[in-house]
Amino acid sequence: MEVENHTSLSQFLLLGLSEDPDLQSILFGLFLSMYLVTVLGNLLIILAVSSDAHLHSPMYFFLSNLSFVDICFISTTVPKMLVNIQAHRKDISYLECLVQTYFFIMYGGVDHFLLTIMAYDRFVAICHPLHYTIIVNPRLCVLLVLMSWLIMFWVSLLHILLLNQLTFSIGTEIPHFFCDLAQLLKVATSDTLVNNIFLYMVAALMGIFPVTGILFSYSQILCSSMRTSSSVGKYKAFSTCGSHLCVVSLFYGTAFGVYLSSAVTHSSPRTVIASVMYTVVTPMLNPFIYSLRNKDVKGALGRLLSRATFGHSWITNLRTKWRLPILKLLL
């Protein structure tokens, strides 16, 4: 088998979800609609939080950041897949593959950190309500978000620098719909020991610390709620955490399912289908989970849409009001 290094390798071949021509058109329509729903839903969350003074709090600041990351996360993988399906192509250049891998790792990692930060925010709000505004102040909120981006910037960069040292055979096929780091390491022709050690080390740290932080936060929330005699207080505590718990379960459940299934079964089709869940479905469902389960978000979205409707009707009335005089003037 002929081998080329990164300096002369021009492209990889993404095998995608299916090679059936009839299924390709269905997949294109399905993923395009899911992508548009995801972008629109998360944009509405960002606009609702930024435009409504009632939502100018740490919890919704983190939520708007999560929505922004979800838009970036899905935009890393789906648009390229849609272009390839529409053009009946499978290729992706070596540079595009590295860029896609870099941003996929970074946005996925920031998602992990934001979910952990949001759990900590709920822990302080419920367990230490009197000190909430002092502990979770605006400066800390910005610092936590910036630290998440900074850590993942360097982690992703190290992954790419190590990946750039590997060699691949000509016409390397990646059994996936995007350049997943684990799949790239499997198809490399050179020694990937260092890459795998770093990958497992980062995965362990990213798995242990965020998940431990989330579990600790919710164990404390549960204990605090059980000590509360008021049923109204218990309901309020669990209602504010319900949306976040749904998102955490969906994100971590599908992500861990992908890597456990790939490690045990080595079945590429199953791994690819499972990957769709956390790369496409989870970012799409997040806005619905938060808007349907949160009265404040629903109220803000309602006010936002009503303002948009009022603005549209005002412009329409203005056009109607001035159309006749302008026509008379022209005639």
UniProtKB/TrEMBL annotation:
GO cellular component: plasma membrane
Transmembrane segments: 26-49, 61-82, 102-120, 140-162, 197-216, 237-260, 272-292
InterPro entries assigned: GPCR_Rhodpsn, GPCR_Rhodpsn_7TM, Olfact_rcpt
SUPFAM superfamilies per the UniProt record, alphabetical: Family A G protein-coupled receptor-like
Subcellular localization: Cell membrane
Membrane topology: Multi-pass membrane protein
The entry's keywords: Cell membrane, G-protein coupled receptor, Membrane, Olfaction, Receptor, Sensory transduction, Transducer, Transmembrane, Transmembrane helix
Record flagged with keyword Cell membrane: yes
One GO MF term attached to the UniProt entry: olfactory receptor activity
Domain G-protein coupled receptors family 1 profile: 41-290
Family according to the record: Belongs to the G-protein coupled receptor 1 family.
Descriptive protein name: Olfactory receptor 867
